[in-house]
Amino acid sequence: MAGEINKNYLSIDLGAGSGRAIVGCFKDGKIFLEELHRFENRPVKLNGTLYWDFPALFDNVKKGIVSAQRKGYDLRGIGVDTWGVDFGLIDRRGNLVANPVTYRDSRTQGMCDEVCEIVPREEMYRISGIQQMEINTIYQLLSLRKNSDPSLEIADRLLFTPDLVNYFLTGRVANEYTIASTSQLLNAQTKKWENTLFQKLNLPLELMGEIIQPGEVVGSLIDEITEETGAKNAKVFVVGSHDTASAIGAIPEEGGSWAFLSSGTWSLLGVLSENPILSKKALENDFTNEGGVDDKILFMRNITGLWLLQRLMEEWGKDEKLSYEMLLDEAEKTEPFRSIVDSDDPSFSNPLNMRVAIQEYCRKTGQLVPQTRGELTRCVLESLAMKYAVVMRKLADCANRKIDKLHVVGGGGQNRMLNQFIADVLDMEVVTALTEATAIGNIMQQAIADHTVPDWKAGHEIIRNSFDFNTFKPKNHEKWKNALREKKELFY
């Protein structure tokens, strides 16, 4: 296949647990994907601090490029996307000051309260539009300053994780817009660094760089990388470098009456908006406004997603090899609506034993306690569907729009039982297909920047022609509506 296709682009998709290199090829009005390299990305604890192993991460980025060359792909472009908020610091000589610290580190504990004493929560939301979470870049930077960390004295520039990869590929220092928007330091309306936040919190504005938009060219590979990888013709393009921005950008839907659900360990339920929604109601309901591709805003809410089921599978998998399909078959044979949990309850954040945590929650809330694998699986999936329904009502209210269709992207799109439950409880069509939405959005943005595809409208037409979409239609809405009415107090 590689020899027949002229327009090849490489997506480097780095997650907080693993990374992948996926090539996308354009031919006959379609896009074809091939995964070339997959690797782990695990934090390392040193002297009580959790770091990302950036040199190993970057080495795997180069291996991904080499894999494409060995397969015969003449790459026209490379695009990098990652998780949000984390960053690295480089000094005046262009060297990495230290390995980046992961958002999972405890250094930001209590920082939200400290910031609120200086910048009230309502004022912060009016400026940034971002949900207040202690993992955000603003609190990480504040912890460095508060503890007089010497890295701030050495640093010349702050680069978010995808910016850091782009820098070591091309030598260009810049901050991409969608990833910068996760920092809580960007003005949601001007899309520029908010000087007043840096001043009030005594944070180093001079570390922040030029903000570049998806669709631009970062630059060509430096000679060292070209020699190592053999990718002589590849440019590095600016994509939606926050992985969520790339994933949602891939959804081939027009108009404003649909919503998206990025379904994985975490769930992100939201809508696309032309402008940030900064109302008091949006703040009170924990919605966030993050940058998207094609000059859009992702107005959405974070929800703990399939984490509960993933942890259960880990626990059960110690005794035997399990598959999702096996668990779904067992869940289908159990009684519906026996027990429901709120996935965002703190007891599920990282318990020693997820099965016990779920059982304790059900016991405390006066419900039947799930015992079997099927009962626990059904409990998690029904609970997630109900949670989505509760958040969907708030989403429609805050965004002031009618929503009649939901697009599910990510790994959860393969969970047939969950998607049918969502269709039933929402009483709307649920559309799935794009389990590789992040890579698709990344590659499509490169093709648009390279003028292989004229714009996102044409890109969405290519995506529609390239994948088989599944539609789940509601079947048992009345039963779900009654069940949710009985359990709704769990979610408020």
How is this structure best described in words?
With 492 residues, the chain is α/β, with parallel strands linked by helices. The radius of gyration is 22 Å and the shape is globular. Helix 12 (307-316) runs antiparallel to helix 15. It starts with 6 loop residues before the first strand and ends in a 5-residue tail after the last helix. The chain has helices spanning 54-70, 111-118, 121-128, 137-146, 151-154, 161-170, 177-180, 195-200, 223-229, 243-249, 280-284, 307-316, 324-332, 354-364, 373-399, 416-426, 437-449, 456-466, 477-487, and strands spanning 7-14, 18-27, 30-40, 44-46, 49-51, 75-82, 87-91, 155-160, 175-176, 211-212, 217-220, 235-237, 258-263, 266-273, 288-291, 297-304, 405-409, 429-432, 470-472. The protein contains 19 helices and 19 strands. The longest helix has 27 residues, at 373-399.
